[in-house]
Design a protein that fits this description.
The complex is a heterodimer. Chain A is α/β, with parallel strands linked by helices. Helices cover about 35% and strands about 30% of the residues of chain A. A six-stranded mixed beta sheet of chain A has the order 6-7-8-3-9-10, with helices on both faces. The longest helix of chain A is centred in the C-terminal third of the chain and has 16 residues. The two termini of chain A are about 20 Å apart. In chain B, strands 16, 17, 18, 19, 20, 21, 22 and 23 form an eight-stranded mixed beta sheet that branches. In chain B, strands 3-4-9-6-8-7 form a six-stranded mixed β-barrel. In chain B, strand 1 and strand 2 form a beta hairpin. Chain B is elongated and about 110 Å long. The two termini of chain B are about 30 Å apart. The chains are: A alpha/beta, B alpha+beta.
Chain lengths: ~230, ~800
């Protein structure tokens, strides 16, 4: 699916230079479920942003589906992103002014998909995440777990090959957190590649592989036995 | 996609009701004010553009220049110019002339006064009108025809058909019958051609009238030229001095002396006549000021709109970031926000349009004497307005759009960082700009108002109260009329003159000062001996003119010859101009003066009166000379007993009816003549005040919106400050200070600019108020208080809020 080769990210301000990622080499196969762990400030989110093409590396190569996208302009990245990648955030990032179904539909709006098909796909994915009965609600009327399910639905409604989840359970209680994890697992079982940043070891256990980051370096990679 | 944009935009509006309201209403008020001003200005510039080939029609006007002293500006032109121009200039296709004035009309035994025109036969070739009845080609063919506007026809005949009827008009000293041979539409509001009552000009009416002379001496007819299309008017203008030089009599035919005055002719396009004619009824400088005012108000409103739009950007950053994450391109984001801002501006325009429609009747009433508006006069205004509003929307939207297009989703989605900082400085600048304009307008409005009030309280040098001016009193019966009036116990005094104060003098007399060979020019005014007592003009040296033979220049009796020497009175400025050290020194001095059109007479100064305003109170009082000429007394001024004014007027009317049963009594109160001079300025001053108020309201709306926004953003910060020990007062003052800063900066910019402009404006007045610092300080104080009052509510609210609540909310 993707391959990071000697990838670095350096943030520069006038006074300081912060190395967020230093010579990172990661390869993720199609259909994998990878968890990224590490202490705060180790570069997890930076890594996820670069994988999600919301940020560009300072150095190194990023090969996404056989294409080296490092150095691509924003418009090209945006295009690859919308075809292939879905996002789930800790803070849900739903749009307050749109209803549940409109929030989900947003992910299809920029794809030139006819309205009837959009409605159909939104309905299907709402069923899948169990939020159909709340279709006309505003985000503020939902619980945290429900909001994150909407976010999951939004991430997958475009049939994205890969989902990037940044602490998807961080704002949820344990019951709701588990619910979301199970949802991600079932998506992975259907073939979606999932890359997830988490602090929770138990949630990391859902993943086939865990990458531990520390100070911008990959420290260890643990492969969990299948089953 | 589109519906999604509409939904987010609309729900955003609804969610932030206050913001949306301020944003839309602020812009709407600005647009409405701007539209009202521009409609007025456009109307003023569009007078008389409705005539066929209006662009080829020019008005010929005259400036008479004298060796010394000020020029005399006349909207008319010398009669002989018609033939001269038609002969010498092939580009002149046709010329039409008319003279206007009041006429007595007899209908069913009652005499009415009617303003009418005596026109050349080709009048309707220039001023084409769709005849309701009759025919433009034949209506003026018969000398005994009259053409009436519909309103005048109704005023004479009511519901009865007027066409073909006969009315009796007093003209050339006797009543003559005229047949109504045409009914034409009423004159539109914006025309200088008041075609209500039209009679063919007939030279016979003026046989024997001394003043009607078809030569270069008297100017009394409006002259309009029609040029061949495409004529180079500059070329025509260049021809005029040569033609004047060639044809103007160099010597006065009566006495073979060289004429002192020179004649300058001007061509004025018909469209310019309203604003630039010597008889202009409007002031182009004022209009330019109004255009500036409209631009400033629009600027404030647009700044407001921009500011509030930008303030909202941070609250929509998450939405934009998410749109980008799911694939929106920059272009799509830009389109969304440009579209949104434009739509908002269009909504504001719709609201503004309603505001204009609702206020138009009041506005029209307010400017009654000046203008009448027709919003749908042409497509230009609608298209222009639409373009302007779309441009406003695009400019406002482009700030947001650029900001969002460059926004990096990760900055918003992963952090709590406020994205407010990047636009904060620009928004601060906009608030400063708004208040700078508002403050400068406040200062301007204050001084314009004060100057207008001052002009009103100006000592005119005479007492205009309880005075009535009766026109048309130059018949040989007028002296008897005066005597009859004086018999009434309610009439205090009666004086006669050729003109009355406020109307100005047309006579420019040259005199030779005692100690110099250099001629000087004074305004001459023929009076009778009672003129000064009626107007209560104080004598400061010598004596008034009296009813003795030596004081008269000319008497009615006999052939009306001028005496060889006469006594005169001058005003204080006149005595100064003539070189006398003090007024008393002038008394008894003899000064050669051209009191007759043809020769210098020995004029002995027997008295000096104090200066009084004879022209507009705006102008400097000019040196004046007063003398007795019984043949030139067409105005009679009557001082009424202040306690019996009604009885005095009744008496006046009765005596008139007894003596002149077939003429209309036409009189005006002197006080209303004085009042008329201030009317336009009063209106303009009030308009400036009103629009300044609107500018302040818009600015305050903006400040209020920003305060409410900032308070929302700073709830957490203020919570922390409170937890750390800041008191309620500390926090309130901190917030109030934050919003006082832009006003204080604005004061530093606005006050010097306002000072400069106001001083410049006041220098245009001969009699003006003094500039002092107090009004500036006052305006500064008011601005700051307005600012405080606007934000105080927010400051109190947030300072009083429970800090724990503020911190928990995240």
């Amino acid at each position: 699916m993707l391959k990071l080769h000697n990838l670095s990210k350096v943030y520069r301000t006038d006074e300081v230079e912060t190395v967020a990622l230093d010579n990172v080499n990661i390869e993720i196969e199609s259909g994998e479920f990878v968890a990224i762990m590490g202490p705060s400030g180790c570069g997890k989110s930076t890594l996820l942003n670069i994988i999600g093409m919301l940020d560009s590396p300072s150095d190194g190569d990023y090969v996404f589906m056989d294409e080296n996208v490092a150095g691509y302009p924003e418009s090209k990245l945006s295009n690859i992103r919308k075809q292939n990648i879905g996002f789930i955030f800790q803070s849900f990032n739903l749009i307050d002014e749109l209803t549940v179904e409109e929030n989900i539909e947003l992910a299809l709006l920029y794809h030139n998909i006819p309205a009837s098909e959009r409605r159909e796909r939104v309905a299907r994915v709402m069923d899948k995440v169990g939020i159909a009965h709340r279709a006309k609600h505003m985000p503020s009327q939902l619980s945290g777990g429900q909001q994150q399910r909407v976010a999951v639905a939004r991430a997958v409604v475009g049939d994205q090959a890969m989902i990037l989840a940044d602490e998807p359970t961080g704002n949820l209680d344990s019951a709701h957190g588990q619910e979301v994890m199970e949802m991600l697992q079932s998506l992975n079982n259907e073939g979606t590649t999932i890359v997830m940043v988490t602090h929770s070891p138990s949630h990391a256990d859902y993943a086939r592989r865990t990458i531990n980051l520390f100070d911008g370096h990959v420290v260890t990679e643990n492969l969990r036995a299948a089953g | 996609m589109f519906s999604n944009y509409v939904k987010t935009a609309f729900r955003n509006l609804v969610r932030n009701k206050l913001f949306s309201f301020i944003n839309i209403v602020g812009l709407a008020i600005g647009l409405a004010a701007c539209a009202l001003i521009l409609l007025f200005v456009r109307d003023e510039y569009g007078w008389d553009d409705h005539w066929d080939r209006a662009e080829d029609i020019y008005r010929l006007e005259t400036t008479l220049k004298f060796p010394v002293g000020s020029d005399r500006l006349s909207p008319y032109a010398p009669d002989p110019m018609k033939d001269i121009l038609l002969d010498a200039v092939p580009e002149v296709e046709a010329i039409t002339r008319y003279m206007d004035g009041g006429m007595s009309v007899l209908k069913d035994g009652a005499v009415m006064l009617q303003e009418g025109m005596l026109v050349d036969q080709n009048f309707f070739d220039f001023f084409n009108l769709d005849f309701v009845q009759g025919d433009a080609k034949t209506a003026l063919g018969n000398m005994n025809n009259v053409v009436l506007s519909q309103r005048v026809a109704t005023s004479f005949f009511g519901e009865e058909p007027a066409f073909g009827q006969t009315i009796s008009i007093r003209i050339g000293g006797q009543f003559r019958d005229f047949r109504v041979a045409g009914i034409i539409p009423n004159p539109v509001a914006d025309t200088e051609i008041h075609h209500d009552f039209i009679i063919p000009f007939n030279r016979e009416y003026f046989v024997g009238s001394r003043w009607f002379t078809e030569d270069w001496r008297f100017l009394y007819r409006n002259v309009f030229l029609k040029f061949v299309p495409g004529t180079n008017i500059e070329g025509m203008r260049a021809l005029l001095p040569g033609l004047v030089e060639q044809h103007r009599p160099k010597r006065d035919e009566d006495i073979g002396q060289e004429t002192a005055r020179t004649v300058e002719l001007h061509l004025l396009s018909l469209a310019d006549a309203h604003l630039y004619s010597h008889a202009a009824t409007s002031d182009p400088d004022v209009l330019k000021g109004f255009i500036g005012l409209a631009a400033l108000i629009l600027l404030i409103a647009v700044a407001n709109f921009l500011n509030l739009s930008m303030a909202r950007t941070s609250s929509r950053a998450r939405e934009v970031a998410m749109r980008k994450v799911v694939g929106a391109s920059r272009k799509q984001i830009v389109q969304q926000f440009l579209g949104e801002a434009t739509a908002l501006a269009l909504i504001a325009m719709a609201v503004g349009f309603v505001m204009v429609e609702v206020s138009l009747p009041y506005y029209n009433e307010f400017l009654s004497a000046v203008v009448e508006l027709d919003f749908f006069a042409g497509p230009g205004i609608a298209i222009g307005g639409l373009m302007l509003v779309i441009a406003v929307g695009l400019v406002a939207g482009s700030f947001q759009a650029t900001y969002f297009a460059l926004l990096r989703p990760r900055d918003v989605l992963y952090s709590n960082m406020s994205s407010d900082h990047s636009t904060g400085r620009l928004r601060g600048t906009l608030v400063v700009a708004q208040f700078t304009i508002s403050i400068a307008l406040m200062v301007g409005a204050f001084f314009v108002n004060k100057q207008t009030d001052y002009a009103r309280t100006l000592d005119l040098g005479f007492n205009p109260e309880n005075l009535v001016v009766v026109s048309g009193t130059n018949s040989n019966q007028s002296d008897t009329f005066k005597k009859r009036l004086l018999e009434s116990p309610y009439i205090v005094s009666v004086g006669r003159s050729s003109d009355v104060p406020t109307r100005g003098s047309e006579d420019r007399l040259t005199m030779r000062p005692v100690a110099s060979e250099e001629l000087v020019t004074l305004d001459g005014l023929p009076t009778d001996p009672d003129f000064f007592t009626v107007f209560e003009i104080p004598l400061i040296a010598g004596r008034y003119l009296s009813d003795t033979e030596a004081d008269y220049l000319r008497r009615n009796a006999g052939e009306g010859e001028y005496r060889e020497r006469t006594n005169i009175v001058v005003n204080k400025s006149g005595a100064e101009l003539l070189g006398f050290a003090d007024p008393a020194a002038a008394v008894g001095q003899t000064v050669p003066t051209n009191l007759t059109p043809t020769q210098y007479l020995e004029a002995t100064i027997i008295g000096v009166v104090d200066d009084f305003h004879f022209d507009s109170a705006r102008d400097v009082i000019r040196p004046g000379i007063y003398y007795l000429d019984e043949r030139r007394l067409s105005e009679m001024t009557v001082r009424l007993d202040r306690y019996n004014r009604d009885a005095a007027i009744a008496e006046l009317e009765q005596v008139w009816r007894d003596m002149f049963p077939d003429q209309v009594l036409s009189y005006q109160y002197m006080s209303s003549l004085v009042e008329q001079q201030y009317q336009t300025e009063d209106q303009l001053s009030s308009a400036l005040m009103a629009f300044t108020l609107l500018a302040i309201i818009i600015s305050c709306l903006g400040l209020y919106g920003l305060a409410s926004f900032a308070v929302d953003r700073r709830t957490k910060e203020i919570g922390i400050r409170r937890v750390l020990g800041a008191s309620f007062t500390d926090v309130t003052f901190m917030l109030i200070w934050q919003f006082s800063k832009p006003i204080i900066i604005a004061l530093f910019v606005a006050l010097p600019v306002a000072l400069y402009l106001v001083r410049d404006w006041l220098n245009g007045f001969a009699y003006r108020i003094e500039l002092d610092a107090v009004p500036f300080a006052g305006v500064a104080l008011i601005a700051i208080i307005i600012g405080w009052a606007t934000v105080a509510g927010h400051a109190f609210k947030v300072a009083r809020a429970n800090p724990v609540k503020a911190l928990r909310y995240e």
